[in-house]
Amino acid sequence: MRLVLLISLTMVAFAANSILNRLAVGSGAADPGTFAVVRVLAGALVLCLLVWARGGRVPLTARGRVVGALSLSLYMVGFSMAYLTLDAGLGALILFGVVQIAMFTYGTLRGARPSPSQIMGAVIAFAGLAYVLWPSGGMRVDAGGAALMALAGLGWAAYTLAGRSAPDALAATAANFVTALPLTAAAIWMIGPALEMTPAGLALACLSGAVTSGLGYALWYRLVPQLSPAVAATVQLSVPVIALVAGVLLLGEVGSLSLVLGTMLVLGGIALAVLPGARR
Predict the structure, then answer these.
(1) CA–CA gap between residue 119 and residue 206 (Å, rounded)
(2) Which of 1, 191, 238, 268 places its Cα 20 to 30 Å from the Cα of 184?
(3) Where are its TM segments located (predicted)?
């Protein structure tokens, strides 16, 4: 029960990142590049302070740090830029749909031969994602935003898999944030968006970086070693549902029928692929 509660808390934090980012970037309170950099900076500061407060050190040169930093930076940049044109629920659905597909593929390449039900579940989940992204009626999905969020999904999948070997979740997350900061800033500088941030945008970026990203990712790194890649991918598919509901209630976004049906297909496909009861 404790594990379930901690996983649920982490998924809420992940969904909150979509809401906070969309709220800041979509309202013009912050440009996506500055939001991403401040988010990483706030997370790095809070995590380092927590590590030092308990007498630990930040392992900047530990094995796998390059993968953690690069994947986190890719996720941060793609995530923030995508929310210029995507709603919170749709963005989360694309993000974690890609995460599921990537982690499913990783498990297969590592020698875990998929069963027929796992293959069918992956096909259904992918069909649900494609259904949402396919332009129809009054709902048009920006191709550039979807591509950026897909890149963010690949980054997050790599970041999650890298966390399976982290001996100290808090210290590893702090090191990832510190090393990802110059990478994220350099990427934003090369993209060259206008620097713009209001006090409200700064507050949202700091909240996202320090709490729902920094502390949320540290908790996720602690939980990931207890989960198989398939289960880790599955539970993250609850995030789009949380973000969709929160986006409709808090941001006034439209919960279209196609988005709801696509979400149900994705979640149903993942359940079929992973849960023994669903297979039967």
Answers:
(1) 41
(2) 238
(3) 36-54, 66-84, 90-107, 119-137, 143-162, 169-191, 197-220, 227-251, 257-278
Within 8 A by CB and 6+ apart from 141, the residues are 86, 90, 132, 133, 134, 135
Among 67-71, 195-199, 258-262, whose mean pLDDT is lowest? 258-262
Percentages of the chain per state (helix, strand, coil), in multiples of 5: 80, 0, 20
Q: How many domains does one find in the chain?
A: 1
Residue 42: both structure tokens together:
């706030």
Spell out the residues 6+ positions from residue 28 whose beta carbon is closer than 8 angstroms to its own: 196
Give the domain extent around 81: 2-279
Residue 112 tokens, joined: 């875990």
What is the token pair recorded at 277? 């009861």
- Summarised one tens digit per residue, pLDDT across range 160-213 is 888 877 788 889 889 999 999 999 999 888 876 667 789 999 999 999 999 998
Measure the CA–CA gap between 149 and 155, rounded to whole angstroms. 10
